[in-house]
Design goal:
The chain has eleven helices and eight strands. The chain is α/β, with parallel strands linked by helices and about 325 residues long. It has two domains: about 220 residues, Alpha-Beta Complex (Spore Coat Polysaccharide Biosynthesis Protein SpsA, Chain A); about 70 residues. The chain binds uridine-5'-diphosphate and magnesium ion. Uridine-5'-diphosphate (UDP) binds next to strand 1 and helix 3.
Length: about 325
Amino acid sequence: MLISIVVPCFNEEAVIDRFHEHLLVELLTIEHEFEFVYVDDGSKDDTLSILKRLAGTDTWVRYVSFSRNFGKEAAMFAGLRNASGDAVIIMDADLQHPPELVGLMVELREAGHDQVIAKRTQDGDRVTRTWMVRGYYRLVNRLVDVELVDGVGDFRLLSRRAVNAVLQLTEYNRFSKGLFAWVGFPSVTFEYRNAVREEGQSKWTFSQLLNYGADGVISFNNKPLRAAVYLDLSLLSVAVLYAVWIVGRVLVDGVDTPGYATLLVVMTALAGVQMIMVGVIGEYIGRVYYEVKRRPHYLVQSTNVAQRADVKDLVR
Ligand code: UDP
Ligand code: MG
């Protein structure tokens, strides 16, 4: 079995060397062939030159370097495309995904699982985070078709057929958590303790996390649109009841209803609801807009991987 390790790297000069060494130590204990596929996601620091150096000394190191920062999703996609292994393991460069687990993952693959999923435990998380995340997942799982699990991320092993399946999902707005779950195949999950980032810093800001959360809801189906329709219907029935009541009162008591406040409240409330609906529709149209442009997910500026025909046009 050839095992590919796919590693997206964005400004990771401080940890790459250490990551590489740690992993080599682990891989040498495994009786399989392996290769590294490092994807430099447009780093501003020395990441690329480190990768080139590693590729110069180790023949099993491949690297793909982007022309600018395209984001981790694009980097993982490129890594999967350029990996030739019978099994592919996706790992972060910052050593938060313990290299010691690689052996276990390979064993579970040998036992026949197509996806070996590492689930981080909540140890060391702040209580507020745990609560927020729990609420979020409860909401999201009600809204999307696939089952998303807290603590389950991109750290996983995929068999060749699972990789090929993921590569068939070429959408532009990639939400890997959902894509992996959508693919299915026999999967197994095991827990691990998350390590703190060794060096450098997390690239996530709070607003990015918020957007990521919104992506999770919207990129998987049209249930928010459906919810909008139901909300509109219920509002409409309330309005009809109210109208009947007013007309009835006029018929019974005669005309005299100064309804300035009521009018204003109803108008602003409805305007608010409509704005939200338009926003939801806009989200979907924005996604459609990006998809129909059919732009490549990333542009490669340098690589030592012999490019397949379908990838070649991205390299130029
Ligand atoms: N990463 C990337 N492109 C980006 C942001 C991050 O390739 O635009 C990589 C990063 O180098 C790391 C992994 O994705 O290997 C996870 O990033 P990070 O540690 O910042 O995320 P966290 O662990 O905080 O979720
Ligand atoms: Mg990290």
